[in-house]
Amino acid sequence: METNPDPFDVLDVACPTRQVLARIGDKWSMLVICALEPGTRRFSHLRRHIGGITQKMLTQTLRGLERDGLVTRQAFPTVPVTVEYTLTPLGHSLAGAVDGLRTWAYAHMDHIQSARVEFDARPAALGPPTPIATASA
After folding, report:
1. How much of the chain is in helix, strand and coil states, percent to nearest 5?
2. Of 54, 86, 53, which Cα lies nearest the Cα of 70?
3. Phi/psi of residue 41, each to 5°?
4. Which domains does the chain have, with CATH numbers?
5. Dihedral sign, Cα of residue 106, residue 37, residue 57, residue 68
């Protein structure tokens, strides 16, 4: 019988690491982390800098990252209120992994695009693979 010495098992439906992976694997979270990696940014700067993100989605993403301890929020009593966001040390440690994924994507984009073209050119009859029938009675 195989035992897992780690207290967490991402393959277990009840494992809290699934929530963390869902947060950091989210496209908007990854883009916000990339945008904050160089340093503190104002909300308005993030909104302009991250193409395609809405104000609502940016707000939700930043709140989630703040809740997980990856980002800190500082509001200044100006009119209108100025809000700045900064990666925490935990957020900076994640930024290195996110940068690795971004670098990997840049390096392999030509291959991925070729694979997509090849896949999309397949006749519909080939479609997705069929599951192999199991021999359970």
Report:
1. 50, 10, 40
2. 86
3. -135, 145
4. 17-120 (1.10.10.10)
5. positive
Q: What is the pTM of this model?
A: 0.78
Q: How far apart are CA 23 and CA 30, in angstroms?
A: 9
Task: Render each residue's pLDDT in the chain as its tens digit; 137 residues.
Answer: 456 567 888 888 888 888 888 888 889 999 999 999 999 999 999 999 999 999 999 999 999 999 999 999 999 999 988 999 999 999 999 999 999 999 999 999 999 999 999 988 888 766 666 666 665 54
As a whole number of angstroms, the distance between CA 85 and CA 38 comes to 12
